[in-house]
Specification:
The structure is a homodimer of 81-residue chains. With 81 residues, chain A is an alpha+beta fold. Chain A is built from 3 helices and 4 strands; from the N terminus they run E-H-E-H-E-E-H. In chain A, helix 1 links the parallel strand 1 and strand 2. The longest helix of chain A has 13 residues. Chain A is globular and about 40 Å long.
Chain lengths: 81, 81
Protein backbone atom coordinates (compact mmCIF):
# COMPACT_ATOMS: atom_id res chain seq x y z
CA UNK A 1 0.00 0.00 0.00
CA UNK A 2 1.25 3.44 -0.85
CA UNK A 3 1.31 5.97 1.93
CA UNK A 4 0.00 9.44 1.35
CA UNK A 5 1.47 12.87 1.98
CA UNK A 6 -0.75 15.88 1.35
CA UNK A 7 0.57 19.42 1.59
CA UNK A 8 -1.92 22.16 2.31
CA UNK A 9 -0.93 25.75 1.75
CA UNK A 10 -2.42 29.07 0.74
CA UNK A 11 0.05 30.36 -1.79
CA UNK A 12 2.55 32.32 0.32
CA UNK A 13 5.75 32.07 -1.75
CA UNK A 14 7.97 31.36 1.23
CA UNK A 15 5.59 28.65 2.43
CA UNK A 16 5.47 27.14 -1.03
CA UNK A 17 9.26 26.98 -0.95
CA UNK A 18 9.15 25.24 2.43
CA UNK A 19 6.75 22.69 1.06
CA UNK A 20 8.74 22.19 -2.11
CA UNK A 21 11.74 21.30 0.03
CA UNK A 22 9.75 18.78 2.03
CA UNK A 23 7.98 17.32 -1.00
CA UNK A 24 11.34 16.87 -2.69
CA UNK A 25 12.65 14.96 0.30
CA UNK A 26 9.77 12.51 0.53
CA UNK A 27 10.27 9.04 -0.86
CA UNK A 28 7.91 8.86 -3.83
CA UNK A 29 8.37 5.14 -4.21
CA UNK A 30 6.46 4.78 -0.94
CA UNK A 31 4.39 7.96 -0.76
CA UNK A 32 1.84 9.51 -3.05
CA UNK A 33 2.49 13.23 -2.70
CA UNK A 34 -0.22 15.79 -3.36
CA UNK A 35 -0.12 19.56 -2.96
CA UNK A 36 -3.35 21.45 -2.28
CA UNK A 37 -3.64 25.23 -2.54
CA UNK A 38 -6.55 26.00 -0.23
CA UNK A 39 -6.85 29.52 -1.57
CA UNK A 40 -7.55 28.15 -5.04
CA UNK A 41 -9.51 25.07 -3.96
CA UNK A 42 -11.46 26.18 -0.86
CA UNK A 43 -13.79 23.19 -1.24
CA UNK A 44 -11.00 21.10 0.26
CA UNK A 45 -10.78 23.15 3.45
CA UNK A 46 -13.27 20.85 5.16
CA UNK A 47 -11.14 17.84 4.28
CA UNK A 48 -8.06 19.54 5.70
CA UNK A 49 -9.92 20.46 8.88
CA UNK A 50 -11.15 16.88 9.23
CA UNK A 51 -7.52 15.72 9.09
CA UNK A 52 -6.70 18.07 11.95
CA UNK A 53 -5.08 20.88 9.98
CA UNK A 54 -5.31 24.10 12.02
CA UNK A 55 -3.02 26.33 9.98
CA UNK A 56 -1.08 26.29 6.75
CA UNK A 57 1.38 25.30 5.59
CA UNK A 58 0.82 21.80 6.87
CA UNK A 59 1.59 18.30 5.72
CA UNK A 60 -0.68 15.37 6.49
CA UNK A 61 1.29 12.13 6.58
CA UNK A 62 -0.95 9.08 6.51
CA UNK A 63 -3.66 11.11 8.17
CA UNK A 64 -1.46 12.75 10.83
CA UNK A 65 -1.24 16.55 10.56
CA UNK A 66 2.10 18.30 10.97
CA UNK A 67 2.06 22.08 10.97
CA UNK A 68 5.07 23.75 9.48
CA UNK A 69 6.37 27.17 10.37
CA UNK A 70 9.06 28.20 8.00
CA UNK A 71 10.38 30.80 10.42
CA UNK A 72 10.79 33.08 7.46
CA UNK A 73 12.93 36.14 7.85
CA UNK A 74 11.39 39.39 6.64
CA UNK A 75 14.30 39.62 4.23
CA UNK A 76 13.23 36.34 2.67
CA UNK A 77 9.68 37.60 2.33
CA UNK A 78 10.95 40.71 0.59
CA UNK A 79 13.04 38.62 -1.78
CA UNK A 80 10.11 36.32 -2.54
CA UNK A 81 7.44 38.99 -2.87
CA UNK B 1 26.00 14.07 -3.41
CA UNK B 2 23.70 12.98 -0.64
CA UNK B 3 21.39 15.60 0.78
CA UNK B 4 21.04 15.94 4.51
CA UNK B 5 18.03 16.07 6.80
CA UNK B 6 18.63 16.79 10.47
CA UNK B 7 15.83 16.64 13.02
CA UNK B 8 16.27 18.65 16.19
CA UNK B 9 14.02 17.96 19.14
CA UNK B 10 14.06 18.00 22.91
CA UNK B 11 12.43 14.72 23.81
CA UNK B 12 8.72 15.54 23.99
CA UNK B 13 7.06 12.21 23.12
CA UNK B 14 4.49 13.75 20.82
CA UNK B 15 7.19 15.72 19.02
CA UNK B 16 9.34 12.63 18.69
CA UNK B 17 6.37 10.90 17.07
CA UNK B 18 5.96 13.80 14.65
CA UNK B 19 9.58 13.54 13.71
CA UNK B 20 9.47 9.79 13.38
CA UNK B 21 6.66 10.21 10.85
CA UNK B 22 8.67 12.71 8.84
CA UNK B 23 11.92 10.77 9.09
CA UNK B 24 10.11 7.67 7.86
CA UNK B 25 8.80 9.56 4.85
CA UNK B 26 12.15 10.92 3.72
CA UNK B 27 13.90 9.19 0.86
CA UNK B 28 17.01 7.67 2.42
CA UNK B 29 18.50 6.84 -0.92
CA UNK B 30 18.95 10.57 -1.42
CA UNK B 31 19.06 11.94 2.11
CA UNK B 32 21.23 11.23 5.08
CA UNK B 33 18.85 11.51 8.01
CA UNK B 34 20.07 12.38 11.49
CA UNK B 35 18.06 12.98 14.67
CA UNK B 36 19.51 15.21 17.38
CA UNK B 37 18.07 15.41 20.90
CA UNK B 38 19.16 18.85 22.04
CA UNK B 39 18.28 18.08 25.64
CA UNK B 40 20.82 15.25 25.65
CA UNK B 41 23.38 16.88 23.37
CA UNK B 42 23.25 20.59 24.23
CA UNK B 43 26.64 21.11 22.60
CA UNK B 44 24.81 20.99 19.27
CA UNK B 45 22.45 23.85 20.12
CA UNK B 46 24.86 26.35 18.58
CA UNK B 47 24.90 24.35 15.34
CA UNK B 48 21.10 24.31 15.28
CA UNK B 49 20.96 28.04 15.93
CA UNK B 50 23.45 28.65 13.16
CA UNK B 51 21.16 26.76 10.78
CA UNK B 52 18.31 29.08 11.75
CA UNK B 53 16.47 26.80 14.16
CA UNK B 54 14.36 28.93 16.52
CA UNK B 55 12.28 26.23 18.18
CA UNK B 56 11.99 22.48 18.31
CA UNK B 57 10.93 20.22 16.79
CA UNK B 58 12.52 21.36 13.58
CA UNK B 59 13.98 19.73 10.51
CA UNK B 60 16.85 21.25 8.59
CA UNK B 61 16.76 20.18 4.95
CA UNK B 62 20.00 20.93 3.14
CA UNK B 63 20.56 23.81 5.50
CA UNK B 64 17.03 25.25 5.38
CA UNK B 65 15.20 25.19 8.72
CA UNK B 66 11.55 24.14 8.86
CA UNK B 67 9.83 24.44 12.21
CA UNK B 68 7.21 21.83 12.95
CA UNK B 69 4.23 22.24 15.21
CA UNK B 70 2.50 18.98 15.69
CA UNK B 71 -0.67 20.71 16.82
CA UNK B 72 -0.97 18.04 19.46
CA UNK B 73 -4.30 17.57 21.17
CA UNK B 74 -4.18 17.45 24.96
CA UNK B 75 -5.66 13.97 24.68
CA UNK B 76 -2.64 12.88 22.67
CA UNK B 77 -0.31 14.34 25.28
CA UNK B 78 -2.14 12.40 27.97
CA UNK B 79 -1.86 9.20 25.95
CA UNK B 80 1.84 9.75 25.29
CA UNK B 81 2.77 10.86 28.80
Amino acid sequence: MTSTAIFYHAGCPVCVEAERLLAEAIDRQRYTVETVHLGETPRRIAEAEAAGVKSVPAIVLDGVPLHINFGAALADLKAAG
